[in-house]
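Suppose a colleague, Dr. K., hands you the sequence of a protein chain of 349 amino acids and asks what its three-dimensional shape might be. Before reaching for any lab equipment, you can write down a predicted structure in token form. Begin with the sequence itself:
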Amino acid sequence: MGTNHTRPTEGSPAGVPASTDEVLLRVKDLEVEFNTSRGIATAVNGMNFEVKRGQALGILGESGSGKSVTARAIMGILDMPPAHIPQGQILLEGEDLLTVTPKRHRQLVGSRVSMVFQDALTALNPVHPVGRQIGELYRVHRGYSRKDARAAAITMMEKVKIPAAAKRVDDYPHQFSGGMRQRIVIAMALALDPVLLIADEPTTALDVTVQAQILELLKEQQEERNMGLILITHDISVVKEVTDQVAVMYAGRVVEHGPTAEVLGRPGHPYSRGLGESIAGEELKGQRLPAIPGTPPDLLNLPAGCSFANRCSYATEACNESIPALETLEAGRFAACFHTQEVLNRVNA
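The predicted structure, expressed as tokens, is then:
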């Protein structure tokens, strides 16, 4: 990796240590690279964040920003090679998922952390009834009998509000609507009572009404179980609906982090501001939506300075020469920009 790519301070954003033992997950200085025919692509570059019990963190950014790669690194489902993790820590309740034995990793990921993928149809096995797929988790991880596993599957289907669960437990994935399939995937993810749930674009393929129902279900289950939630999305409205903290990613880095209402309502980074302005509002009815000009940088050839500089109206010579560090904006808020105060002043003008 090139020497230009400086790393944020170790620990939580801007090096702030966790204040309590509530932290479920701490990601420290995580880097993920991919070996390609054209060279090494740096997909995640010095990622730092933490999730506490009962907290919902949104990871927000355009496609290619490193959101899903981060999630897959946590779950240990990156294809390695071509993926490679040259440095970093992924601490789940204090245990580093990058250094534990494969057996211990399976135990932790199988029972303590789960993931909901965006395409429920591909996440489910088409040749097995949904009840059997949910029940298998109880049989493998809890030693349930076939009868008890089936009963537990019905209970989980009821928890995620599948109508007539006892009658539908033997139905196959194709017999359910897209929204109901996603509920089944959520039931599988929650079956073993994880302390942390990662949801990667869980509502992408669903219509607006069903999307709202799924988001309500996720939030309800997260609060009921007091578990940590990481919601990965490019949709600001989804982040507003579910999360209380948000990390905004661009070109593999966190460029802003803090309480969701503060970051989205009063952004301190030009990229966060641009994302917010691209959302349709009543005041823009009949007008062309503002858009961030240009395209994200080539991850195989990241610039020496700020990766957002070529798309940023605030950019100066300094932005092209060095990478701004993620620094404290105010208590609990962090931004990586040389012009944060200008961005804030423009928002408040």
